[in-house]
C-alpha cells in the first residue's frame, strides 16, 4: 500500500525554507518508496485564496482531505500561523479533515515561539477533525542552518507517537460496533 501524503505550506514566500523543512519531515517520518507526496505551496494560490467559489482551491482542499498524512507548515507570525494558511483552512467545514493524520510544523527565528504549533495550529486542525499525533514540530531556522539536529529529534518524537497510536489499532473497537460487543483481533 502506498501512503498518500500532502504537504501544505503557508509561507507567503514561494519555495521557502518552511517548505523545504516540511518536505524533509515527510522524508524522515516515512520510509522511501512507501508514499507519494503532493506539495501545495499556498503562495502560488494567494491571488485566489479569498475567491468563493474556486474550483482550483476546492480541488486542493479535497486533495488534503483525501490524504493519509498531511504536513501543515507555516512560519511563525506574531506567535501563530500565517493568515494565508488560516484563509486556506477556513475553506473547510467543521470536521472536514476527520481521521486525517496531520503533523503541524512551524518555523521561526528562535525558540521563543516553540509552543506555537502545539497551542495555535494543532487546535485548529483538531477542530477540523484531524488526528494530531503528539506535539507540533517547531524548527528554529538558526538550528536548521546548522544541520537540522532539532528536526531529527522532533521527528523521532513524532514517529514514536504515531507508532504508539498504531499499536492500539488491533485492540480498538470498530466505530460502528456497540460498546457491548466483543471483537477478537
TrEMBL record:
Membrane-crossing residue ranges in chain numbering: none
Coiled coil: none
The keyword Oxidoreductase appears for this protein: yes
Pfam families: FMN_red
GO molecular function terms attached to this record: oxidoreductase activity
InterPro entries with a match to the protein in the record: Flavoprotein-like_sf, FMN_Rdtase-like_dom, NAD(P)H-dep_FMN_reductase
Domain NADPH-dependent FMN reductase-like, chain residue ranges per copy: 5-136
Record keywords, A-Z: Flavoprotein, FMN, Oxidoreductase
The protein's name in its UniProt record: NADPH-dependent oxidoreductase
Organism, scientific name: Phytoactinopolyspora mesophila
Amino acid at each position: 500500500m502506498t501512503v498518500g501524503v500532502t504537504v501544505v505550506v503557508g509561507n507567503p514566500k514561494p519555495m521557502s525554507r518552511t517548505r523545504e523543512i516540511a518536505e524533509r519531515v515527510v522524508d524522515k517520518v516515512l520510509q522511501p518508496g512507501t508514499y507519494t507526496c503532493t506539495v501545495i505551496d499556498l503562495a502560488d494560490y494567494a491571488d485566489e485564496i479569498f475567491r468563493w467559489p474556486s474550483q482550483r482551491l476546492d480541488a486542493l482542499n479535497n486533495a488534503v482531505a483525501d490524504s493519509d498524512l498531511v504536513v501543515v507548515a507555516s512560519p511563525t507570525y506574531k506567535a501563530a500561523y500565517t493568515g494565508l494558511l488560516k484563509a486556506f483552512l477556513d475553506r473547510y467545514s467543521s470536521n472536514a479533515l476527520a481521521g486525517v493524520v496531520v503533523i503541524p510544523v512551524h518555523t521561526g527565528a528562535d525558540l521563543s515561539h516553540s509552543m506555537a504549533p502545539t497551542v495555535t495550529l494543532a487546535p485548529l486542525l483538531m477542530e477540523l477533525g484531524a488526528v494530531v499525533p503528539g506535539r507540533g514540530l517547531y524548527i528554529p531556522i538558526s538550528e536548521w542552518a546548522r544541520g537540522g539536529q532539532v528536526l531529527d529529534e522532533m521527528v523521532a518524537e513524532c514517529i514514536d507517537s504515531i507508532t504508539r497510536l498504531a499499536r492500539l489499532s488491533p485492540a480498538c473497537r470498530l466505530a460502528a460496533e456497540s460498546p457491548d460487543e466483543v471483537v477478537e483481533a
